[in-house]
Amino acid sequence: MSESNENKHDAPQRRNAATLGAPRGAGSHTAKQGKAMLGAEALIASLEAEGVDTVFGYPGGQAIKIYDALYDSDQIHHILARHEQGAVHMADGYARSTGRPGVVVVTSGPGATNTVTGIATAYMDSVPLVVITGQVGRGVIGTDSFQESDIVGITMPVVKHSYLLQSTDELTRTVREAFHIASTGRPGPVLIDVPSDLAGAEMVFEYPDEVNLPSYKPTYRGNAKQIRAACRLLEEADQPLLYAGGGVIASEATEELVALMDMMQIPTVVTLMGKGGIPEDHPLNLGPVGMHGAKYSNMAMTEADLIIVAGARFSDRVTGRVSEFAPNAKIVHIDIDPAEIGKIRDADVPIVGDLKGVLAGMLATLEKDGARPRDAQWIADINAWRARYPFYHPNMAVNEGDGEIIPELVLAELGRQLDPAASIVTTEVGQHQMWAHQFLFRKLPRTFLSSGGLGTMGFGFPAAIGAAVANPGKTVVCIAGDGSFQMNSQEMATVAINGVPVKVMILDNRCLGMVRQWQKLFYEKRYSETLLAPVPDFVKLAAAYGWEGERVEKPSEVADAIRRMLAATGPYLLDVAISRDQSVYPMVAPGAALDDVMGAIDVAVGAVRTDMPASTGPASPCAKIDAQFGGRWEVDPEDTGARLGQDGSTFDVRPEDWKTLFRESDEKKGGE
């Protein structure tokens, strides 16, 4: 059986275990049940009872008893990171790629505080983690003893729940609760702080199968009345749109969402966290939306009369100026976390529940009603917008610099060479992250891992290590920037020592690309502390860690270099030189409305980027449609080239296919 088929058959079992609160491992049936042992040994036995096979971490004085107990485990493989932040990101990559909680063990004080960025990253992106920190003995807590820190207090805003153990009597129950809380409802990180004296105390190991948390009862079943109300709105909508986020992946709701798209012919926009939740070759998948989304996706969001929000949270990177977001749309918001509903945008129909089950309920209701799409023109309009405003056009390779490597084409080439069913891609944070979102083809859930909510530089590389450890049969590639990669490049040692065959492709512009882009566009090119010196030599750095590596500087070298990288049996670093002047477009400026898009390619006016800020060069000669001239385009007097629909035009799209930016009203159509 192939790995993908194994994962498919394992999914219901994973979901049922999480939903019912049962351990994913042996639970109380472990052979260690009822035996006397030390607290540290009971902690490791608890992890074994939960089915944990991999732990990431870094030892220290207050965690030494835990590590001593771990030494005897035949079930758990430990990955020694080179920094605690790296360890948490590794566990995060493990969790995102499998759906199982990632586990971290570190020591107290600086060991614990070094985990905070990783914990916050997981919290923002709803990733299940169990982070175990050593702590000083109970008798000296609060005395500022050596390597003491109040890690429970420090992490309170960025964990789903946390525990400071007070007795061995609560140890096994706490671990059972921690895994249950981390993986149920809206997933998230849970922290367990273990005083060192408890780790050395004797106890009898009794692992519970059940969890009794009266105050924690996630709602899985959506309200039937609300589901019917959502279906009524959908049946009445002319221009419906699905807005799919990371909840599609967390809920394993891909099959149901695609079925709804197909049944009602609903186009779908996808957030960064939702990438891979819908196959990107599905004709109704409009792809990225928001600040660096497609212009046609943003137009669809603006023009929709109904938006079904599926496991997304109205991030500011998606909505733009909230007061002008989706002004014509009624909102159906489906989320398992009731705190998200109404937080940013009021919902006409709020539905709290597991997305997979809610969508299944909607499908059953629509089928019973005999519902069908109301307006084929909506899809026709969107397809016209997609043809007119593509992410990329072949002419741009020339326009953006002769002889320069074009980052969009690099990502597209990587996507062509990767098997979507046998590969996982992680990203660091910055321009390369957005280019990957726009151009890298993904077809399956849990195959694109990126820090969305916190935007953590240094996430992607260690996350790739965790994903590779969890998925040994898959090719794992980290797409990085030269700035982000250096945040946790010390983990190259972890890769080399553990024989993890990850690949790292750096889009190397020797600057902090995204911040520099903002400085170019909005701060009069005042490049304050964003230009990086040409150090290190990444190829030599790779060699120092025992990796293979190479650098490419010409477009003609890229495809073969990617081929060599993917064919390598061990870790490989590919340093791809790109220009500092490359920018990510389209772009919605911070604080602007979602439909106020700069830098979108418009094939109707010669495949130029439109509505560019004056600081980046001459304004586009053609920017707005003028309906009074029958759909002709306003042009600069000096621009005498053939326009769409004129004799000599090189475009084979008919003028009537564009019509207007906005739908004509039924009344106007009737009057004509």
From TrEMBL:
Keywords: Amino-acid biosynthesis, Branched-chain amino acid biosynthesis, Magnesium, Metal-binding, Thiamine pyrophosphate, Transferase. Residues 38-152 form the Thiamine pyrophosphate enzyme N-terminal TPP-binding domain. Residues 1-13, 653-672 have a biased composition (Basic and acidic residues). Residues 429-576 form the Thiamine pyrophosphate enzyme TPP-binding domain. One of its GO terms (molecular function) is acetolactate synthase activity. Residues 1-32, 636-672 are annotated as: Disordered. It holds the Pfam family TPP_enzyme_M. InterPro entries: Acetolactate_synth_lsu (IPR012846), AHAS_TPP (IPR039368), DHS-like_NAD/FAD-binding_dom (IPR029035), THDP-binding (IPR029061), Thiamin_PyroP_enz_cen_dom (IPR012000), Thiamin_PyroP_enz_TPP-bd_dom (IPR012001), TPP-bd_CS (IPR000399), TPP_enz (IPR045229). Belongs to the TPP enzyme family. Residues 227-360 form the Thiamine pyrophosphate enzyme central domain. Binds 1 Mg(2+) ion per subunit. Pathway: Amino-acid biosynthesis; L-isoleucine biosynthesis; L-isoleucine from 2-oxobutanoate: step 1/4; Amino-acid biosynthesis; L-valine biosynthesis; L-valine from pyruvate: step 1/4. This is Acetolactate synthase. It catalyses: 2 pyruvate + H(+) = (2S)-2-acetolactate + CO2. Its cofactor is Mg(2+); thiamine diphosphate. Its EC number is 2.2.1.6. SUPFAM superfamilies: DHS-like NAD/FAD-binding domain, Thiamin diphosphate-binding fold (THDP-binding).
